[in-house]
Specification:
Layout lengths: L1 E6 L19 H14 L6 E4 L3 H14 L3 E3 L12 E3 L2 H7 L4 E2 L8 E3 L4 H19 L5 E6 L1 H11 L17 E6 L4 E8 L9
Parallel strand pairs: 1-7, 2-3, 2-7, 3-5
Antiparallel strand pairs: 1-8, 4-6, 8-9
Helix pairs in contact: 1-2, 4-5
Length: 204
């Protein structure tokens, strides 16, 4: 498979100094999402997958509108959160925002709460997500885009590379960057990291 791991566009939480747990995209973020959708529409994708957080869903929706591809929502792709617990969309809210999306069976109907996560538990969650990706798609030639979050993308990339989590290690993830990874049952090849060449200078 070829995995396109995308960070969401600029969100309300990216432009303020206070906590916005489930912010929407800003006007700039929506433009970034549209430019990313144009790029991804050229790649011959087969499936879109998103975190259940609004900023990721809104970014994924731009690509879905352009491609008509099915959208799955995986609950455990939420962003790493080391702050106090906050409430996020459940199945009902996701389907209001993304009619027709296929939600994980364990996504609660009326929302879920997460917070005070440690780097260790986030990395374990990322390893679980990588295992899920590889089991389902690793032996196929499908092209799949996953829309997630800056910090969780770092954990997921580290899990894919087989590196343990360690403080101070960071992989830059700009808004609406695309990471390209080739995954098969035996190998992982990183093809590109933090690619923002598809974004106009006015959105970077």
């Amino acid at each position: 498979m070829i995995l396109y791991l995308v960070r969401h566009g600029q969100s309300e939480g990216n432009i303020v100094t206070y906590d916005v747990p489930d912010g929407r995209l800003t006007p700039l973020g929506r433009q970034q999402a549209e430019e990313t959708a144009r790029r991804l529409a050229e790649e011959g994708l087969d499936l879109l997958i998103s975190s259940p957080l609004r900023r990721a869903l809104e970014t994924a929706l731009a690509t879905q509108a352009r491609t008509g591809l099915p959208l799955e929502v995986w609950q455990r792709l939420w962003e790493y959160r080391d702050l106090e617990p906050a409430q996020f969309l459940g199945r009902r809210g996701v389907l209001e925002l993304c009619p027709g999306a296929l939600c994980d069976d364990d996504l609660p109907q009326d929302g879920f709460e997460c917070g005070w996560e440690t780097p260790e538990t986030a990395f374990a969650r990322a390893r679980d997500m990588f295992d899920r990706i590889r089991r389902r798609f690793g032996a196929t030639d499908q092209k799949v885009a996953i829309f997630a979050h800056g910090t969780f993308n770092v954990f997921l990339l580290m899990a894919m590379m087989g590196r343990p989590w360690q403080p101070g290690l960071w992989i830059e993830q700009r808004n609406c960057c695309i990471n390209r990874i080739h995954i098969d049952p035996q190998h992982v090849r990183i093809l590109g990291i933090n690619d923002v060449a598809h974004l106009s200078t006015s959105t970077i």
